[in-house]
Prior knowledge:
Elements: H1 11-33, H2 45-51, H3 64-75, H4 97-109, H5 120-137, E1 146-149, H6 152-167, H7 172-175, E2 183-188, H8 193-201, E3 209-212, H9 222-234, E4 238-245, H10 257-266, E5 271-274, E6 299-303, E7 315-319, H11 322-325, H12 342-345, H13 362-396, E8 401-403, E9 411-416, H14 426-440, E10 446-450, E11 453-459, H15 467-478
Amino acid sequence: MTTDLTTLFDAHKFSELGHRLIDLLAEELQRNLDAGRPVLQWREPAIEDANWQAPLPQQPTLDLNGFIEKLKKDILPGNLAIHHPRNLGHQVATPLPVAALCDLVASLTNQAMAVYETGPTATMLERQVLRWLSTLIGWDSVAVNGVLTSGGAQANLTALLAARQHAGEKRIWQHGVSNERRLRILASEHSHYSIARAAGIMGLGTDAVMAIATDAGGRMRPEAIAEAHEGCRRNGEIVMAVVANAACTPTGSVDPLKVIGEYCAAHQLWLHVDGAHGASALLSGRHRHVLDGIALADSVTWDGHKLLYMPATVSAVLFRSAANGRQAFAQNASYLFEEKPQEEQDFNVSYRTLECTKRMMALKLWAAFSLYGVEGMAALVDEAFAKAGRFAEMIGATEDFELLMQPQTNIVCFRHLAAGINPSELNRHQAATRKHLIESGDFHLTQVELDGVLWLRTTLMNPFTQEADLQALLDAIRAQPASKAP
């Protein structure tokens, strides 16, 4: 059978299918917001995997009607319902619908963005968004010192590559680290796993990351940083970077950025702030004080797909100095980069990022800020933080629940002190309770273990989550029999 290739790109069929898809997704969104379906229709992954082991189609197996039906009956219902008001689990945004439409624009226009000519407007959009984010941090609003990249882990790696180049012999990119004094990274004991992963990728070894102790609020202790720094100096080691959290993944805690930043400035240490989750507090006049001192950082990671309510993934890695931003990668590729003055090369995004082909990520951020403004985006952050504070109050008013700490952002950790359970069995009870709630489809929440104690963990990001949903969660946990703990 000969395929008429023009039919694969038919604009009329695209329009027809697109309208049907948008209608289907609008129905799905409304159903989730109205809690008209379970948060998750749990299926054992091994069994589900068997259901999806179809042979590779050599000929079409679906027409457009069949494709829509497959989405409607098998694909969408099997997803985690991100917009559901009882989805309280991971730090994944309930994305703004307009941002999802921007991703459609980015996908169809397919601007590769390796160099300026492969994505001219996409490059300008990205530069504008980076300026806006830098302005919010408190940096120069004219310079473009950063890049958008695919996720916070890659943003952290990019920042630490620049820090390594800054700390080491200037040709470390070419010659490697074998002839260097040992490089160290000082990071919170609650730092994201991507920090240790970056150390491994860079050839430093994960042992290069020194875990800095935190206080009862999950914040890095400045005196512990100073002690670790002095120990490194005595051992002839170089502190390549200090990594502060804003906010950490387990508890949402924010390190004392101003004190840490002043120490790093006084000792000429690179400060990287992992603000993947919490940097969006900078939008809020009510909460930006939590990040006081972030402008002292040399680099900042900021995820759009968390509290900027973007679809995954879009992350910014931002540098206080343009020169530092250029240090992360130092390569030549004549098929992409020509010998041009630095100010012209700055328009070629691939100089500053791990990706070569890079999609147009900035459009959705540009659209959200343009349509809703900082004030509109800040309202989402304020709502999330307020909801976490209210949930903490509800937990604190009970006798059978224990709150780990007052939330500093929108993450709340707690545990159920079920009557009749031996304290040694409490961890097993939390795990069994969470498993039951997820597999029932009633709620989605996570768990975290700190110092041997297991806590239930909620991330409150959905503006449609109401106090009644939070009360229903506590009631559902109470209803879980202690005898079901494995």
